[in-house]
């Protein structure tokens, strides 16, 4: 082993370049306790879903939950006819349910418990 092997090698800079405006916006969001991917008050479903572009954001987390056979087949059918990914369909439905008033949510939940 020679002394040249002990030389410190430069690490590659892996930081993403951001504009000043993006940096300030992120700082403001951080100060207000907001994180990327959170729906903001007054934000429409379309605006929220625009931010759910899988290629540009890393706000997705893997989730596992149980569905009935009927729900799975219905979801499969919707995905085939609309040619939209099942996970995106679920995100849309969850957001639509979230936007409902409490009474409307309770009505929907009471119908589904049959």
Automatic annotation (TrEMBL):
It comes from the Bacteria. This is Replication protein RepA. It comes from Shewanella phaeophyticola.
């Amino acid at each position: 082993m020679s002394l040249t092997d002990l030389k410190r090698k430069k690490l590659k800079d892996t930081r993403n370049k951001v504009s000043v405006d993006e940096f300030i916006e992120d700082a403001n969001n951080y100060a207000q306790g907001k994180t990327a991917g959170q729906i903001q008050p007054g934000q429409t479903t379309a605006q929220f879903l625009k931010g759910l572009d899988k290629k540009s954001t890393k706000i997705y987390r893997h989730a596992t939950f149980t569905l009935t056979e009927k729900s799975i087949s219905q979801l499969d059918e919707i995905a085939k006819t609309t040619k939209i990914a099942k996970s995106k369909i679920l995100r849309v439905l969850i957001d639509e349910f979230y936007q409902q008033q409490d009474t409307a949510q309770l009505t929907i939940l009471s119908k589904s418990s049959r």
